[in-house]
Every structure is written in C-alpha cells, then in structure tokens.
Specification:
single chain; globular; mainly beta; four-stranded antiparallel beta sheet; 1 helix; 251 residues; 21 strands; 48% strand
C-alpha cells in the first residue's frame, strides 16, 4: 500500500505518506521527514483510501468497506468518525471510496459499489445524491473541494469515467472525462490559483485540470499507476506511484 493525504491539526502543513505499513509525515516541498513527528505503524489490512480529519486523526477505508481509525489520540467518537461509521453501515451497495474536504470535517464524499456518489454532512443533515448512478460498476475514487461557486465533488469509476458535481448549487453532475480503463485516483482542491482537479487511470495517465481557467488539461505519464493523489492549498500535486511519491508544482 502506498497512499498520501494532507495532514491537519497537529500535522498541518505536512504530507502524510503511507508506505509498507508505516505512516510518515514529510515536508511536501522538500520530501524530508517533518520535524517533531515519529513514524506510525499502520494496521496490516488491505485498504483503498486514506483520509485525514481536521483534528489530526487518520482513517483507512479497507477493501471490505470497513473504516479503521488509527489510534493516535483522543479523536475517537468525533463527528467525522461517527459519519464514516454511519456510511459503512447504511449504504446497501457498500462503500468503495471516501474523501473529506481538506481540513474541514463538515462533509464526506462516499462512492458505492453500484456507481453512486453521495455527499454526507457530518452534522446529521440529509444525504445528497444524484438521481441516477454516475458509473457503470463501482466507484473507485472520490474527491471533495470548496470553491467560490460552492462545494464540488469528483468521482471516478471502474468504467473509466470521471464526473464533477457541484452538489451545493443544485446543478446536475457533469461528465468530465471518459477513457477505456479504470480510474485509480481523483482529487479536487481550491488553491490560490483557483480550483484544481486531478484524475488518474490504470494505464498510468494523470490528467490535471483547472476548471475555471482557459486552456487545455495537462496530461502526465510518470512511469506507473497513481493510486493516491493529493493537492495542497498552494497547488502542489502529490502522487503516490509504485516506486515513490512525486510532487509537482502547477506553475
């Protein structure tokens, strides 16, 4: 397993990198171990996603659809933990992908085995879902971002499609991309330069877009599948590849 996510709380400003059962915190610009942090041992369970809570907690979505919280400190029982637990128990087609919105624990994006995307408020509010499944087959990756136009959810699926959904605006989901291989990772983030979305496919292609800016998408091939993608507020794109983690500046 090789995964990345942004650290929050006491790990703010650092990139959490999971490799070979160990979670480390590094400086996203230099790649060096961050000062004042020690490596953490991860549970020996196969996972499909890793996400961080605003309080510095971490969660693994296991391949069986169960969420495991890392026992770091007294974060057990917070509203994000409760929302994740609710999702894994109430979506009949199983949870296959999860994401939160940066350092905010107000919303969780959930993908399921029937190709549906759901946005779940952590305060107990109603679950938002498009009327129809977005994907033919399971959702394999989801992302969440805040933007000037409101919240944006991104989903990728086994069918090779990538959908964008401005769930707070009431607009219908928009098909962004479709390629003949499985989506392995997606990410969305509001940065100083505007909204950024990233999608990766199983053939190794990574596509970076700025939806609010003119110009084409940027396509990258970096020598392997990206199984995890993170975009930090400065616009640094971090990709977990088979042989290591790569960080790319957009400008």
């Amino acid at each position: 397993m090789r995964r990345t996510t942004l650290g929050h709380g006491r790990y703010a400003g650092r990139l959490a990198v999971a490799v070979n059962g160990i979670l480390r915190h590094v400086d996203p610009v230099t790649g060096r171990d961050a000062e004042g942090t020690d490596p953490l041992r991860l549970p020996s369970v196969p996972s499909v996603a890793m996400l961080g809570g605003a309080d510095g907690s971490y969660y693994l979505l296991r391949t069986d659809g169960v969420v495991t919280e890392l026992p770091l400190h007294d974060s057990v029982g917070n509203r994000l933990s409760r929302a994740l637990d609710w999702a894994t128990r109430h979506f009949a087609d199983g949870v296959t992908a999860l994401a939160t919105r940066g350092g905010q624990d107000d919303l969780v994006a959930v993908g399921d085995g029937a190709g549906r995307l759901h946005c779940l408020p952590t305060d107990g509010g109603p679950v938002l879902s498009p009327d129809e499944p977005l994907h033919r087959g399971a959702v394999t990756a989801v992302g969440l971002a805040a933007s000037p136009a409101g919240g944006l959810a991104l989903s990728g699926g086994r069918d090779g499609r990538v959908w964008s959904w401005a769930h707070e605006s009431g607009r219908a989901p928009e098909l962004v991309d479709e390629r003949p291989c499985e989506v392995t990772a997606v990410a969305a983030a509001g940065t100083a330069g505007g909204l950024v979305t990233v999608a990766a496919w199983s053939d190794g292609l990574v596509r970076v877009r700025r939806p609010d800016a003119a110009g084409p998408a940027v396509d990258l091939r970096l020598g392997g599948q990206a199984r995890s993608v993170t975009v930090d507020p400065a616009g640094l794109v971090c990709l977990a590849l088979p042989k290591g983690v790569v960080a790319l500046g957009l400008d």
